[in-house]
Each structure stands twice: as C-alpha cells, then as structure tokens.
Amino acid sequence: MKSFAARLIAWQRAHGRHDLPWQRTRDAYRIWLSEIMLQQTQVATVIPYYRRFVEALPDVGALAAAPIDHVLQLWSGLGYYRRAHLMHRAAQAVVAQHGGVLPRDPEELAQLPGIGRSTAAALAISAHGARAAILDGNVKRVLARHEGIAGYPGTPRVERVLWARAEALLPTRDIATYTQALMDLGATVCLRAAPRCAACPVAPDCRARGGGRIDALPTPRPSKALPTRALKVLIIEHAGEVLLVRRPPTGIWAGLWSLPEMDTAADVAKHCRKNFGAEVTVHEPLAVAEHALTHFRLKLTPQPCSLRQWSARVEEPGRIWLSIADAEGAALPAPIKNLLRSLKQSRAHRPSIRARGNRVTLT
Fold first, then answer.
1. In this structure, how many other beta carbons lie within 10 angstroms of the beta carbon of residue 214?
2. 119 and 84 share a domain?
3. How many beta carbons lie within 10 A of that of residue 303, not counting itself?
C-alpha cells in the first residue's frame, strides 16, 4: 500500500479543489488573507468577501494604510471581527518591521499578530514551498480519525500528539499538493457529520473506520451550556435616519458601529435622556432576535424610538446618523445589519413613524 502522503497527493490531483481564487497565485498577501478568512468560516461564504477585500486593498501596504473603519466595513458580515483587527495590526507590523514584505520563514510569520503556527506554515508552504506541517480544524479531524487519536483536540496534550503525527506524515516532496489535499479531504470528504468514507483515499487503514469510531472521533468539546445575555437595542430615528454608536475596541464586535444597547429592565426614555441628552417617544418593541456567539447566546429586543428633542451630545464623537439603507453598507455586526434590513423591508409594506423637528408624524 502506498504511503498516507502519496495517496493524498494522487487524490488531490484527481479530485481536489483547483479553482479557488487564492489557489491561482503565489502572492503571500492574498494567501494570508484567505487563510485568515477561512478560519471558522466556510469557503462558499469567504469567496465574495475575499474578492471584495483584495479589490479594495490589494496588498500589505494598502491594508496597513487603510483606516480600521474601512477594513471592518469590508469584513462586515463575515464574523469573528478580531481577525480583521489582528490582520490590520499585522500589516502595519510588516510595513514597519519588514519593509512591507511578509516574511518567508514560518517562525517569523508566527510572530505577527493573528498568525499562529498552522497559519504561518500554510502561508509559507503555498507562497514559498516551505516544508512544514499544518494543523487546522479540518486536518485535526482527518488525523484524529485516521490515526485513532482520542481526546478533545483543543487540549494541549491531544494537540501535541496531533502535531507530532502531522510532522511525521510529511512527504519529502510535493508539500503544497499534500497540504492542500489534507485541507480538501477534511472539507469535502472527511466531514464532521456523514463523512464520505467510500471516496476517501486513506479509508482502508483509517483506525476510526476500522474500529467503528467514526462518529466518536475527534472527541467533541466537553459539553457546556451557553449562558444567555439579554439586551435591548435602541432604534432611535430622526428624519429617516438611525443613530449608531461605535462599539468599544475590545470585546464582541470590537470597533464596529452598532445600535445603542441597554439593559432590558431599564427605562428607555430615561436611558436616552441620561446617555444621549435626547427626549424620545418610545414605541412598541419588536420581536426578540437570538444570536449565538462563541461563549454566550444573545437575546436582542429591538426597541424603536422617535427623537423629539436632542442636545449636542447626540452628535458627540463615536455617534453617527445614517439612513437605514446606508447603514446596511456600514461596518455593522451581522445581526444588527439583518435587523435593519428586516425593518426596512417591513416598512415597505406598511406606514412607519418618523420624527421631524419636535413633532412625530405618521408617513
């Protein structure tokens, strides 16, 4: 029987993916961008974001020089926004420390913000033909099953075992093809649910398959109930525009624009008066929307309000007024963007409340 690597290389050439946008280049910047976007995000979702991003910011220098607002706007809807912040910081470090050229060495790459060991290896392999092992989520699943490695892969002990096997299985040649084969096999054949074992080139000696443990490997994350956080999001409107506020630089949706938030039990009118110097007419709340994040579940109650009177505090830095149509194109979290899109669509079919000056009128 041919080696594990030889079978994967042959399979990749015959059945792997060859037409993804980032496979047509040796440009380290574009490969880096694809690797970061593909973390925790499906290929089909990434492709339009990738194309839009490289069109707007075609190289490291352009990314480093871009305002973070522009970067977040291009990323808006892709999720896990910390990736965008770290990539922006890394680009600035590359310009300042490496003359605007991404390092070739995986160890140097791994020193940049947001580039871990596996991403650094994948980048160095694809751009420069380096010989290195990768261990992303798909590869962990392939190796855990084929090698029969039990235990949750997120623990240091199991990860060390997986890294050791990833390095031991490396071929002496065709590293780029082998690496792509590992990623493609995990993404298209060795699936988390209902894997296509009949199409797998290494199924004959897969220990999980032979031992009837396909569903058990890799060992899932220990179950833990997600806590729920309930908030009101304020849709404060004036003359067809909605108030948006800048989120803090850390935490969920860091640096994005969003609707103002408040505790569900607090008084809306008092909150607006205290925090924005605004007098509002409070309307009926909309249906609660739920959104699952990595560490907790959000329950958002949209609360429409019409602005009646305001002070200069409404115009303070970190606050902007945009039409709902314009807000859809801004750097907003996906749940907030979806909420505003639904609101616009529903209002296309029924009267809506707008504030003009100090009067509220029905239009």
1. 15
2. yes
3. 23
- Kindly state the DSSP code that residue 216 receives in the 8-state scheme: T
Tokens coding 58: 């075609």
- Token pair of 324, please? 């709902």
- Domain membership flag for residue 327: yes
What secondary structure does DSSP assign to 91-129, as a single string? Answer: HHHHHHHHTT---SSHHHHTTSTT--HHHHHHHHHHHH-
Beta-carbon contacts of 266 under 8 Å, excluding residues fewer than 6 positions away, are 232
CB-based contact 306:355 (threshold 8 Å) = yes
Crossing angle between the packed helical segments 117-128 and 175-188, to the nearest 10 degrees: 130
Tokens 């033909």 correspond to what residue?
129
The contacts of residue 267 (CB under 8 Å, 6+ apart) are none
**357 pLDDT higher than 80:** no
How many separate domains does the chain show?
Answer: 2
Which phi and psi (to 5°) does residue 215 adopt?
A: -75, -20
Range of the domain at 258: 228-362
322 pairs with which residues across the strands?
A: 242
Which residue, chain included where needed, has tokens 């945009």? 322
Q: Catalytic one among 35, 147, 237, 241?
A: 35
- Cβ neighbour number for residue 64 with a 10 Å cutoff: 18
What pTM was estimated for this model as a whole?
Answer: 0.78
| Burial class (CB within 10 angstroms; exposed 0-12, middle 13-18, buried 19+) of 215 | exposed
Q: What is the mean pLDDT of residues 18-40?
A: 93
Q: Is 35 a catalytic residue?
A: yes
Average pLDDT rounded to a whole number, residues 124-132: 93
pLDDT tens, residue by residue, 194-239 = 999 999 999 999 999 999 999 999 999 888 778 999 999 999 998 8
Q: Give the count of beta carbons closer than 10 Å to the beta carbon of residue 308.
A: 16
Are 346 and 258 contained in the same domain? yes
The full DSSP string for 217-250 is: -SPPPPP-PPPEEEEEEEEEEETTEEEEEEPPSS
- Give the domain CATH number at 153: 1.10.340.30
